[in-house]
Amino acid sequence: MKKYSFLYLILLVCNISFSQEIRGVVLDGNTNLPLEYVSVYFDQTTIGTTTNQKGEFTLNYTNIKTPLIISYLGYNTKSINIFSTDEIQEFYLFESNNRLDEIIINTNDNWSRDLKLKEFKRHYLGESKRGKSCRILNEDDLILKFNKKTRKLIATSKAPIIIKNEVLNYTININLDYFEANYSFVSKNKKRLNIKTVSYFGSSFYKLYPSPLIKNVFEERNSAYRGSVLHFMRALSKNKLNERGYKVYLANGMSDPSKIIFLNQLKNGKGVFVKLKGDLNIIYKNGNQSRIEVLENEFYIDSFGNHLPPLSIQFYGDLGEQRIGDTVPLDFISNKE
């Protein structure tokens, strides 16, 4: 199954060390008045904060190479890839002219909202135990449309969707820019819905919440992490694929990683450039099988295991079928590497 990873991950070009801070103020682009309670976070992480009454914020920077997201209800979300840690910066948000309904209203829609919502959850949250434990706390904000002619389910949202993952103990705030599920076959009674491809993108912020079963939560998070795209990328960047339980092969059967994977480690230790000789077949120690299709000759993996650009490679199989419910944030630290 084809799946595009969420999400606008562009390599930051600024050289930033650990222990630095980003300081800024968020203002209304038309009135220049400060905006309070604006969400400011690094995409796909737990690293975030909100602005105070003066629109000010301070955010620790830990060398992660994802965009800085500034999000406020009723305003267009801002994604920032280049910023400074040397001065207080001003960021301007502009009120959104929300025309989402108009964008997708002219579709040949013959599905009930219940069916569309069920299919959206199935393909966005996932069908694993963790995926099924997820609850969308503001379902009414979702805009869901099905096009009978193209057999395409489209989803977006009027406001950031809030997902509570009961198993992993995360609340995930997601600016869902776009979701699309393409079906190869839809029966007349809608009992058979064969999926062909799923793609989605947006930005996300993870919040941890306390649990009385914290030991179980840690094990669930470690379980979700092992065998994930993040786990694979970290193992690849550290040249520890075999040690972490991965076997990789080219289509011709070649299985010596040193002959099919080439790493160029940056001197500052903040990432690695990767070149793959061709598409890879991957077997994880639990029996999961995946394939990587190379779309660009070279890509980058930062020190957190985040690969850039995100669409430089395409995942299929078990890695390609992972969904939101099985994800951990990019700054997740496993105690069982």
What key phrases describe this protein's structure?
337 residues; alpha+beta; Immunoglobulin-like; 7-stranded mixed beta sheet; 7 helices; 22 strands; globular; disordered N terminus
Can you describe this structure?
The protein has 337 residues and is of the alpha+beta class. It has 3 domains: 2-93, Immunoglobulin-like; 100-208, no CATH class; 228-321, no CATH class. The chain is 15% helix and 38% strand. The protein contains 7 helices and 22 strands. The strands form 5 sheets. Strands 1, 9, 10, 11, 12, 13 and 14 form a 7-stranded mixed sheet that branches. It has a 4-stranded antiparallel sheet with strand order 4-3-6-7, with no helix packed on it. The chain has a 4-stranded antiparallel sheet with strand order 15-18-19-22. Strand 10 and strand 11 (152-157) form a beta hairpin. Mean pLDDT is 87; it is low at 1-19.
